[in-house]
Each structure stands twice: as structure tokens, then as C-alpha cells.
Amino acid sequence: MRNRTSIYLFTVPALLVLALFFVHPILLTFDMSLTSFKGIGEAKDVGWSNYERIFTRDRYLQEVWVTLRYTVIVVSALTVTGLFFATVLHRLPLIRNFSRAALYTPAMMSFVVVGYIWQFLYSPINGGINVAMRDLGLGAFEQNWLGDPDLALYSIAFTQIWMFTGFTCAIFLAGFAGIPEEIGEAGRLEGASPWQSFWYLELPLLGPSITVAVILTTIGTLQTFELPFILTKGGPDGATRMLSIEIIDNLFGQYKFGFASALSIVMLIIVLAVAFIQNKLLRERENVT
């Protein structure tokens, strides 16, 4: 009993830090979301009107939909591409370290730097992508990558996928490192092809890595702000206006602190709900496999 009490006491500092820097700010934000505070003066209590405005206007519901759609695109692609490169590098130990470092380099770059680089590449006139297509005789495939409402969201998503493929690849490589070599040897002795070894032996054992990769990339993508802001500022025609951009615009552009706080609480609920559902489903999948 004494040892158990000592263990609980050791958690007190961590719980205090969590309460001070996480729970307390959330409570203050929720309290502000029930007001019409504009940064100065007295905060007037408006009840649930900020939340009613969010859920009764198509504009904000559309932004939630754009955020979720963008997240599905990015997380799905990052999981597949990261797993692909990790699988290839796992079988090529001679180039593994160099390739892993090269793939991870974009993730260490600033969002601002990456955003402006790809803004130049996507430029419809002299951008690197369209110029390369003209030089290769593929001028018919030139696009206004950031100016077309049907393409802009996918263009931004591709930039984030390019940036963080190395991150998910590193997670899966760590998962591969934890698979006993005896399992691969047993598969080869049974005559399993490389594809069969991956699908029936390695992939089920990568369940914990898949869970970590999906949850981390989902949480990060739901809060994405820098890339869509730099590349399109939410345009064209609101096609890339995500919830994070709306929050910043209301907070620092229109000084609607109360409404921005309500949007932030809605985003927090979405992030927690999605992460909880993903964790539950993926953990169940791990137990089944």
C-alpha cells in the first residue's frame, strides 16, 4: 500500500502541470466562448449564441467539412506512402539510413519555407511544375493548381504529404525493427513470396505502428493552418478555408475573441472525438490480428 501511494505521489507534479497548462486554459477558453469579448472592454455574456451561430450557418459547417475532407486525404496518403517507403527501405539496409534521413528532411523544415517554395512551384505562369510539363511536351496537362477550386485542396494536401511522408516512414521503420527476424525466416522456409510475407506476417505485426502513425497525423492535420494560409489564404471561393483559418481570422483579423474561442472549442471536440474513435477502432484491430 505504501509503494502504491508513493507511485501516486510521483504523478502529482505531472498532473499539476497538465491542469495548469492544459485543463485551465481550456476552461478559460470555454468561458470566453460564452461571451462577445473583443479583446478590450468588458466581456458581455451571450450564452450559447456563438455555438448556435456555428451550427446554423452553412459557411461554418462547410469549413468543418473541408477540414475533415482534407484530413482524410492527407492521413490516408501519408499512411500508404509512409508504409510503402518503410517496406522498401526495410529490405534495402545498405541505403536505409541515407534514404531515411533524406525522406525526413522536409519534416524538419519550417511550414512557412515549405509553403512559399510550393507556392512558387504551383504558380500557373512560370511555376516549376507547369514549366517542367511544357519542357516535357506535356503542356496540355498544365493547371492553375491553386486557383482552381477543384484542385486547390488536393494541391495543398500533396504539399503536406510530401512534407511528412518521412515522418510516417520513420514510425513504420521503427515498427519493422521490432519484428523478430525469425518470423521472416519462417515465412521464407514456407515458401512465402515477399508480398505474402508483407501481407500475412509483417502487416499484422505493424498494428501498433499504424495506430500511432494514423492518430498523430490525424491530430496534426486537423489543426493545419500554415500551408493553406500561405498557399491560398482559404481560397479560391472558400475551397480551402479550414476551421483553423476561420479561428485565426476571427481572433486576429476581426478581434472576435468570444466567437474564435467557440470555434476553438468545436475544433477541440472534433479532434478529441476523431482521436478517440480512431484509437478504439485501431486498438480493436490490433487485438483481432
TrEMBL record:
The keyword Repeat does not apply. Keywords: Cell membrane, Membrane, Transmembrane, Transmembrane helix, Transport. Residues 64-278 form the ABC transmembrane type-1 domain. Pfam families: BPD_transp_1. It is found in: Cell membrane. Gene3D superfamilies: MetI-like (1.10.3720.10). The chain crosses the membrane at residues 7-27, 68-89, 101-121, 151-177, 198-219, 257-277. InterPro entries: MetI-like (IPR000515), MetI-like_sf (IPR035906). SUPFAM superfamilies: MetI-like (SSF161098). It is a multi-pass membrane protein. Belongs to the binding-protein-dependent transport system permease family. This is Sugar ABC transporter permease. It comes from Ahrensia kielensis.
